[in-house]
């Protein structure tokens, strides 16, 4: 269940109440007249089944409540109420399958901002991956994948494409491309510093490295794994039963590929540089494509499910 707390102008409260009462899957409607001070108005509260939440939130935004008042949404971890149980039974579909598009857009917008913290995490992850590829250590590679924050902008691109939000596409792409560029520059400098201390050598770059050679030798399996990871990552963002994104992050090789490209470039190994860059592009493209198709499939399925539940019988 979701809990909605609304602030509405006094002359719009009846309209909002009728809208809530007319939405299948709502419960526990309460109105506190004149309680709001900034902005002034009434406070309207209700609970709504997750599978009906997107419809109600969309209707409230269409009515302009977010402009003249406010809409706050919280997830209810525990609700002991037979009325709430009936509301969830009445709402079409299953809560675990529901997608709150407003929440998803807001989340990906926040995660797709080029900030100092984002660049710092990505740079540190890329440096850890650089140590992993130079030492041919798969454990360090896995650790670097888990630390990398790049899935946020990737999910932002997919969400923006499906929602047809060009500004979010541009924002996400900027965070993704600029973030990786800065991280790779920092990693190249890190490699030069490690070389000066004798911790990195050119022989380490040219060594066979059987455990990590896949990073600069992309093939169709690289794209397939990235595609599957994109599906899992998108489902983890949209589902009420979301899994850990760390598990998704270690399925792809975006950060290690960027790290190997930076290190190889610092030693003028252009073969590994180009191979790593191709691996990076294949992973980024696979994740975005999978994320977009997953969101489109979810959107279509939920629309069909709602039509079937509310249509003529």
Characterize this entry briefly:
By secondary structure, the protein is an alpha+beta fold. It has helices spanning 13-21, 50-62, 65-68, 82-90, 101-111, 116-135, 138-147, 151-163, 166-196, 202-206, 220-238, 245-249, 254-266, 270-310; strands spanning 2-8, 26-37, 40-48, 70-75.
Describe the structure.
- It is a single chain.
- The protein has two domains: 90 residues, Alpha-Beta Plaits; 199 residues, Glycerol uptake facilitator protein (Up-down Bundle), CATH 1.20.1080.
- Helix content is 65%, strand content 11%.
- The protein contains 14 helices and four strands.
How many structural domains can be distinguished in the coordinates? 2
Helix content: 55-70%
* Helical run tally: 14
Shape: elongated
CATH topology name of the largest domain, in short, is Glycerol uptake facilitator protein
- Main sheet? 4 strands, antiparallel
CATH class of the largest domain: Mainly Alpha
Average pLDDT across residues? 88
Low-confidence residue ranges:
243-248
The strand count comes to: 4
Just name the CATH architecture of the largest domain.
Up-down Bundle
Return the string of H and E elements.
Answer: EHEEHHEHHHHHHHHHHH
């Amino acid at each position: 269940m979701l809990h909605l707390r609304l602030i509405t102008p006094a002359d719009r409260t009846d309209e909002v109440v009728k809208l809530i009462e007319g939405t299948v899957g709502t419960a526990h409607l309460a109105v506190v007249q004149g309680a709001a001070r900034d902005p002034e108005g009434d406070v309207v509260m209700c609970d709504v089944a997750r599978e009906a939440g997107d419809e109600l939130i969309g209707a409230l935004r269409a009515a302009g409540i977010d402009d003249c008042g406010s809409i706050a949404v919280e997830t209810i971890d525990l609700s002991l109420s037979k009325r709430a149980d009936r509301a969830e039974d009445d709402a079409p579909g299953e809560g675990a399958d529901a997608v709150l598009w407003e929440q998803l857009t807001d989340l990906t917008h926040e995660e797709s901002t080029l900030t100092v913290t984002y660049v710092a995490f990505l740079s540190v992850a890329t440096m850890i991956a650089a140590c992993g590829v130079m030492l041919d250590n798969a454990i360090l590679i896995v650790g670097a994948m888990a630390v990398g924050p790049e899935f946020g902008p990737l999910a932002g691109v997919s969400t923006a494409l499906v929602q047809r939000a060009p500004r979010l596409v541009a924002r996400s792409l900027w965070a993704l491309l600029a973030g990786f560029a800065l991280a790779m520059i920092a990693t190249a400098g890190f490699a030069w510093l490690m070389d000066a201390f004798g911790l990195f050598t050119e022989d380490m770059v040219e060594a066979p490295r059987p455990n990590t050679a896949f990073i600069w030798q992309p093939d169709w399996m690289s794209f397939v794994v990235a595609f599957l990871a994109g599906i899992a990552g998108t489902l983890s963002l949209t589902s009420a039963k979301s899994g850990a994104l760390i598990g998704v992050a270690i399925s792809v090789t975006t950060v290690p590929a960027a790290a190997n490209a930076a290190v190889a470039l610092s030693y003028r190994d252009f073969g590994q540089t180009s191979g790593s860059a191709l691996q990076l592009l294949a992973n980024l493209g696979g994740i975005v494509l999978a994320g977009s198709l997953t969101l489109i499939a979810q959107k279509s399925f939920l629309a069909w499910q709602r039509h079937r539940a509310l249509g003529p019988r």
